[in-house]
Amino acid sequence: MDIRHLRLALFTGNYNYVRDGANQALNRLVGYLMKQGASVRIYSPHSETPAFPAIGEVISVPAVPFPGRSEYCIPIALPSRVRRDIKKFDPNIFHIASPEYLGHRAVSLARKSNLPVVASVHTRFETYPRYYGMPFLEPVIEAILRRLYRRCDAIFAPSESMAQLLREQRMSYDVRIWSRGVDRNLFKPEARDPHLRHKFGIKEDEVVIGFVGRLVMEKGLDVFSDTIDELVRRKIPHKVLVIGEGPARGWFSRRLPQAIFAGFQTGESLARAVASTDILFNPSVTETFGNVTLEAMATGRAVVAAQATGSESLIDDPSMGRLIRPGAIKDFADALQSYCENKELRKEAGYNGYKRSECYGWDNVNQILADNYLSIIQARQQSGQAPRLKPRS
């Protein structure tokens, strides 16, 4: 089967109305598949003010704002007009990219139509309640995710560490890898910009600890700020540069009044900002891959990250950076202090990370997913029926 015969129906709760690593990866995937001659149709909530132009044709599905996080939408239906469009499009595989109502309904439709369906895992949703004082919900969310993923022909994790976690959680009998790439034309050591540092009041010999990402509590903002407090108590000279925006901006700026907030950045400006730091500090445990970690590595920055899914598959500790037990403030501070005080150690970790980043190209990782689509379609055509669900164990 040739990729030009691929007809992919992609279902996601967020395709382009908020810019994050997951939906940017989906847009890159769609662009790559279309260039190869595949047909793709996207079913997702629509926004009058999208964060960036969508790649491919998007069919709008009904949605409402998420309570307390109105920048996100919750799909609430798969109406008849959308079902008619799906039938007219005549896909030969479904791809579910978010595990909400739309995803569950799409899986049911695929199984009713005897079409193969896969899911990609982009974040650890089951961990989110712990950041909002409701950790008792984690087992419930995990059970809901398990029900969805076990009804799919296969699920895709962005890293082997995340794939292993999904196996341990008994999410699927078939867990495969769809990795992530980095645009090395943008993210490179040469992107470092002394003028940008000067603009932010940073001297060339000052060590800058960077935070990159959406400013939301589940990114580990509390751990980041507690660790910076510990460095201040130790009197370790440093500057903090926060690259990103989000609903927790006010909380974070009050918590770290000495930090420099660069705001939302993208493209070349993002690459310059990342390359103009000296250390990336990523304490988050919710990522399944860690796009910001890979981008920092591609610019030659040393990385201190939580020992969690995603980062574990990218960083060899200690040669490329440090992996620290999640929430271990003292250990995070120790790692950052060693890089702040030892320029050569920092440069060595950055160089080793840069060499590792050379393995990650977008076309390669997207072609691997396309090959998996085709093999799953062929397997379904040969068997003639959906895979049976494994009994709970």
UniProtKB/TrEMBL annotation:
Residues 20-184 form the Glycosyltransferase subfamily 4-like N-terminal domain. Keywords: Transferase. It comes from the Bacteria. One of its GO terms (molecular function) is glycosyltransferase activity. The keyword Cell membrane does not apply. InterPro entries: Glyco_trans_4-like_N, Glycosyltransferase_grp1. Pfam families: Glyco_trans_1_4 (PF13692), Glyco_transf_4 (PF13439). The keyword Ribonucleoprotein does not apply. CDD domains: GT4-like. PANTHER family: SULFOQUINOVOSYL TRANSFERASE SQD2. This is Glycosyl transferase group 1. It comes from Zymomonas mobilis subsp. mobilis (strain ATCC 31821 / ZM4 / CP4).
